[in-house]
Design a protein that fits this description.
Distance between the termini: 50 Å
Shape: extended
Structural class: mainly alpha
Largest sheet: none
Number of strands: 0
């Protein structure tokens, strides 16, 4: 319906540089059409939108908007924030077989730290991400 009534742009048509200016350029001035297409522009705008929505929800989530973690209508109480240092009590961890909320928070933070370190290594060395992971595990992933 939208395409037949002209509501969606032609994805293969380049953006008009008189309207969009330098935003329509892709940096390849040697090509016959030195600009990005409507389809690519829509994807870029969607990515930027997703990035800013993610940043906004990570930086300032409001209590009344955070319905994924708490059910305030049923009286569920918020947990105390962990802070930078996670309090791990060896006695509690061993009593529950290692599956405590504190241990899971520490595991999650260490996993994210490992992911960030792997991506940083990949970017700094110019090596593809999977090759960096392959080197970290001793070369057992790829022959």
């Amino acid at each position: 319906y939208a395409t037949s009534h002209g509501l969606t742009p032609n994805a293969d048509q380049p953006l008009d540089t008189t309207v969009w200016g330098p935003l329509a350029m892709d940096g390849n001035m040697a090509s016959a059409t030195p600009g990005i297409t409507n389809g690519r522009a829509i994807i870029l705008i969607a990515h930027v939108h997703a990035l800013f929505v993610s940043l906004a929800s990570a930086i300032s989530p409001f209590g009344f908007q955070d319905s994924l973690t708490l059910n305030m209508k049923e009286g569920e109480k918020d947990e105390q924030a962990y802070g930078v240092i996670i309090p791990l009590s060896p006695k509690d961890v061993m009593a529950q077989g290692g599956l405590t909320a504190d241990a899971e928070m520490a595991n999650g933070r260490l996993a994210m730290l490992g992911l960030v370190a792997t991506v940083a290594t990949s970017v700094a060395t110019g090596t593809p991400f999977l090759e960096v992971v392959n080197k970290m595990v001793g070369g057992v992933m790829m022959a």
